Amino acid sequence: MLLHELGHAVAARILTKDKVSVFIGSYGNKEKSFRIPLGKLEVFYCPSLLSFSQGLCIPAAKDISTRNRIIFLACGPLASLVTATAVLGSVVLFQAQDILRIGIIALAASAISDLFANLIPIRKAFKLHSGSIAYNDGFTILKLLNWQRYQKIIPLYNQFNEHKQYVQALELIEPVFKPKISYVEIYRKALISAQLAGEYGKMMIFYEMAVPNTQLTSGEHNSMGLLFAVHHRIEEAFEAFDRAISIDPANVSAILNQAFCHLSRGDYGDAIADYNKCLNAPEHLAYTLANVGLAKIKLADTVAGLDDINRAKEISPNEPYVYRSLGIYYMDTGKTEEALANFNKCRELDSNCHVIDQLIEQANGQTGWY
User: Fold this and answer.
1) How far is it, in rounded angstroms, from Cα 123 to Cα 9?
2) Where exactly are the transmembrane stretches of this chain (predicted)?
3) Angle at CA 299, nearest 5°, toward 294 and 305?
């Protein structure tokens, strides 16, 4: 482990000319380590048998090119390879006592084990003392090679977008997006490109590929949940909303979107439970009350439901969902003219209100009821 980390350290010193910190026996724990200053190299040794295999090398320089980062990472396993070759060569070239020979072979075995453990790409992350996560050298090198490829196409990618050649931009970025190794920025570029190109199916495919491999934000999960809902993929929508809310329980937008999915498929009790969580969000209060009122009406609590809808109307007379909910209530009670008037008012306020055109067709008797 020491030679492996020193391999990183030597490369970092040559490439950056700056300070380097090496940790032996920990993943960056200075508090429980002995500090050994060696000029611009400092070694932190943690004498713990439980963490004997742990090690970390941190260059002080922050602005390191992708190429130099790859070289820096490769030099750790390379040091193990050189060590293994040297000690095995010494066994062949020099006569040594049996005990010394056993020690040399053990050192070579340790170096070879370290070489393969770090050079073979493994996706299993480990947690550093700082709280961030990292991967072994081989997997990180793969990620950086993918990032290097991404950096090469970015000028042409940006040029395509500037000229609104979104399909060409998508065709350029799509082969670079590798969900198991790509950094999240590449995923986001691929997603935006698919959106601009109108390839919503690919957006959903990219998202499903990224979820097991990429740490997305609560907002990103919520946006994709909404896209799934619009395309009537309700189960996937619920999964995305669940992820959004688990990351940020205060994401009101995700809770409201989830509630509306419950409302749309007739899970009125679940819808009310979700909407009730958002009653303390004043910017969404009229919308929330309009929909929770409809859910109550659907559960035969008509008086309370109409009270909520009327309260929403008092708060915001131009809330489209007030009129959508009233229209559905009037259709349910057979008052078609009142329903149509409210649906038309809803569409006047928001022509994109959920299935409002279908509701108007239904009120006109052109299709079956909602």
Assistant:
1) 24
2) 70-93, 99-120
3) 40
**φ, ψ (nearest 5 deg) of residue 116:** -70, -35
Residue 154 sits at the vertex; the CA angle it makes with 152 and 156, to the nearest 5 degrees, is 95
Report the C-alpha gap between 73 and 140 in whole angstroms. 8
In terms of DSSP bridges, do strands 20-24 and 41-45 run parallel, antiparallel, or are they unpaired?
A: parallel
Work out the angle at residue 170's Cα, subtended by the Cα atoms of residues 70 and 195, and round it to the nearest 5 degrees.
115
Residue 229 maps to a domain? yes
Residue 139: inside a domain, yes or no?
no
Helix axes 98-119, 66-93, angle to 10 degrees: 160
C-beta of residue 305 within 8 angstroms of C-beta of residue 322: no
Contact 157, 83 (CB under 8 A): no
Domain check: are 90 and 239 in the same one?
no
Instruction: Report the C-alpha gap between 368 and 173 in whole angstroms.
Output: 44
Over the stretch 94-151, which tens digit does the pLDDT of each residue have?
Answer: 555 566 566 666 656 666 777 677 878 888 888 999 998 899 999 999 999 999 999 9
pTM of the model: 0.79
CB count within 10 Å of CB 269 equals 11
Domain that holds residue 223: 152-363
